[in-house]
Amino acid sequence: MATITFLWHLHQPSYRTADGTAHAPWVAVHAGGAYLTLARSLLETGASGHVLNLVPTLVEQMEAYAEGRVHDPVLDLLRQPALELDHRQRADLLAWAFHVTPRQKSRFGRLAELETRRQAAASTEAIGNWFGPGDLRDLQILFVLAQAGEQAWRDPELADLSTRGGSFSTADHETMVRWLEAQPARILDLWRQLAEHPGLEVSTSPYAHPIMPLLVDTSIVEESWAPAPAPQVPELRYPGDATLQLTRGLAFMAQRGYRIAGCWPPEGSVSKEVLELYGEAGVQWLVTDEGILERSLGRSLRDGGRLPTEIFRPWRLGTATPLLFFRDRELSDRIGFVYGRWQREDEAAGDLVGALEGVAASLPDDACIVVALDGENPWLHYPQGGGVFLRTLVERVGASTKLRPATLESLAQTAVPETLERLHPGSWIGQTFATWIGHPEKSRAWEALRTVRESLPPGAEIPEPMLLAEGSDWFWWLGDDNPSALAPLYDRIFRWHLADACSAAGVPAPEVVSRPLKVPAVPLRVPVSKQWPAPVFDGRMTTYFEWSLASFAEAGEQGSLRRVGAWADGAWLYLLVEAARPLGALTEDRPLHLELELPSGEVEALTFFAGSADRMDLPSAVGRVAELALPWDASPGARLHVQLGEETLPSEAVLVLEPFPVDEEPLEQTP
What we know:
The structure is a single chain. The strands form five sheets. Strands 11, 15, 16, 17, 20, 21 and 22 form a seven-stranded mixed beta sheet that branches. 48% of the residues are buried. Among the domains are: 10-196, no CATH class; 440-514; 521-661, Immunoglobulin-like. Helix 2 (34-44) crosses helix 12 (170-196), helix 3 packs across helix 12 (170-196) and helix 9 (133-147) packs parallel to helix 12 (170-196). It is an alpha/beta fold. The chain is 39% helix and 17% strand.
């Protein structure tokens, strides 16, 4: 009889910076939602064969909420009586309260109504005319109910609120606040109960959930992408940081009484070098994706509809490394991405158990089926909040005569592994690390991390914020593959962690920490002419004709920058920057930085500071204005960053250059 193991991975990056402020509320609001749905379902059914993977940064933040050691501005907005919300707080509440899934929104018609009204509000200034105290109180409570999942109708404190769906009183609001504040301690207690429950297991991941192979050596991308060409990425090698992330994570969990046998490597990311680190730390087992096994064996495991029996057995690379279990991707993805669209959760659970039994029927008795996935995100998309699915799943697996639930710790002690000659380095997504490195935004983040890491005193203890900045999520949200309206905020949190690391080490933060990584792209059409004369680089408008060919991007009313002009001749990009005051004087106390990121990934940059440029090989001058030239062959897609101190032009955006040829003849110029 084949064994079945479900691994539920729970993690959040550290939204809390060194000043104690949590800049996003997800740890707190999910405590009584997705986390509680999963934990209650497993305990209520007496589940067996489930592994709960708790990442230390999630547990640490949950403890901080339970103990009152965190300031969360969003929770303040939810707790504040609606009549006491000022104009700015109302705007902030309306900015946060609609970050819910369509399924969550569909449960509460009043929430959808309020969102429609929010979309109709023309500006922040008009919000006060669109939402009264009753509307805002409804919104506070409905946001919490939407995030609560099935607790919204199962918990006595919330059930009546959920049934009424709106027109809430101040007493209702007080009830919601008490319930919300109690959830972090509640889920911490349930996690401890799960760890002591027979047939269940708690595992963990390295402390801040970093992509360990990239932290060890980013040159691993060449082997991971092969035989396809790998992108150019920043060189970074910090195996000591990787070791510290792992040992600190294991020690953190041990200090809280958790006995850890195995790990989910962050994002299923593995490499030979990383496996050795896990082995040295005493980790008995790891789980990653079946695609890693395919790439390691050098052949497809599902071609022709054949059953991939190789997936359903443990493997070992060398003699001192942990056992490797490979998740069944197709079955795991059904839970994560398919069953949430079904109308009946019990039928979805029955379908999964039928599929598991079908697989098990064709496998030997010592086969190990592993289903592993995110244990938080799916339930927000399920019609009944996921609890019915989970409880039905546990009950039907327990009643099956073809499946035997087992923890991975028990299997690691008894299973006889196959020998793996080579381990392909990669993650669960596409079996490369492309989700976290390679895109220009992601690579700039690694460069910023490297710059800060190199600025820390050699041999000194690595500050906690440095470890937090190494977490995988900050790189996930950069680039184009995982769009989020909150990506600019997550970019700032990442850079705040870097700044906090410098502060903790007593060194000044590098200028790169102040530059946004995630910025909107604003197109700028750039004229290209090989006939127009090059500018005179003297820091002033020499003649009217000098920049009359250029296209301009204008700044807003705020700040010192006014506009930037650009034109090109096929070899050079000519740039003019104007400000409200002479730029030479403005650069006395803040740098003016211009950076051209080419489609190839190469970067050309120049910085003016204290009235001088940092490069003598490029034509430039700064005075009343700044004038300069950067090498550019007029290929489309280049990105231009313009920044004076903390101020960017356009505001918090980047210019994407769109070249177009022009045929103007040079005009007659008179002295």
